[in-house]
Amino acid sequence: MSGPILDLVEARQAIERLTSADLLRLRKAGRQYAFAAGCEADDLLNEAVCQTIEGVRNCPREMAMLPFLIGVMHSRASAKQQKVEPELVSADATDVGGWFSHEPVETKPTVEELGLAQEDASARRNALEALFADDDEATLFLWAYLDDLSKEEIMSMIGVDMKAYATIRRRVRRTIDAAFPNGWTS
Amino acid sequence: MDIVSGSGRAVPPLNKLADELVADIMSMSDAELLAEVEAEGLNAEDEASRVRAVNSVATGQAAKARLKAARAEIDRAAGSNLGQVHRLPLKDRAAVLVRFANDDAKLKSRLTMAARNGEGITENEMDDILANLRELGAIDEDGSPI
């Protein structure tokens, strides 16, 4: 990462200055990344804050603390999933701006760990499919994302414009929010 | 506020889905956000306070971790000042102390007890005394009198 960064005291102060709306967004974002990572939302947020205050992650001066912390949660969630999908490993953590950088996988998982993690990831995908079993649009939306299609491809496949796409996206997000308010707690 | 991906690297599919859903969260106005939280049956201020508490716990944990690291560094530095003395075999460290014990009746008595029945002075106490002798310049880093 290049450019000026907040020192540790400034980072702590920036976290303490987050507004109520910021905190609510942080909580909601944490739920989604925790579900993706297969962990609890509070644990993921705790990790992100600890890493920021300890200086493991450095917040660029030009970036607000809220998107920075969300980016850290994204990265942690991505790293946790790389145990499941090792072919996706990227060891570079030097994205410009430090936004959504990937993390190196710290330890190579054993065959047993990999098996358990894959089972857990499958359980999360199955849980999503069950959640939207009676919502065809939402199911298509999910399948398309899990099959790695782009937003444009998804809109074309479902046959919706941007406005309708946003409506489906919000419905999916709120449903997951309600069903898994603490992330993944199995 | 847009959420952007950094460099086009492969992102796990569940994370891509989460990115897209988080983009929805970021696209809401504060008023929409508050209304959504209230619609979930939650009090927005209570919920924000709960998240603030999670952050406070994390801040406290990080502070403790930093303190522990600092303590370890101080201990490491203190250990390096001892030179090799604390790495000598136990009987050699005891021998260094015996040389000084003739001038210290209490120490001599405790060393004698230790030699007889394994009591009287602990290894940690022995190392503390050696550290003091080293700091006072009474012995060199190998435990020899200066």
Structure report:
The complex is a heterodimer of chains A (186) and B (146). Chain A is mainly alpha-helical. Chain A is built from eight helices and no strands. In chain B, α4 (90-101) runs antiparallel to α5 (105-117) and α4 crosses α6 (123-135). With 146 residues, chain B is mainly alpha-helical. Chains A and B meet through α1, α2, α3, α4 and α5 of A and α1, α2 and α3 of B.
Which terms would index this structure?
heterodimer; A: about 190 residues; mainly alpha; 8 helices; about 0% strand; globular; B: about 150 residues; 3 domains; 6 helices; about 70% helix; disordered N terminus
Write the layout of secondary structure elements.
The complex is a heterodimer of chains A (186) and B (146).
Chain A (H helix, E strand, L loop, with lengths): L7 H9 L3 H18 L3 H13 L11 H17 L29 H21 L4 H11 L4 H8 L3 H18 L7
Helix pairs in contact in A: 2-3, 2-4, 3-4, 6-7, 6-8
Chain B lengths: L12 H15 L2 H10 L4 H38 L8 H12 L3 H13 L5 H13 L11
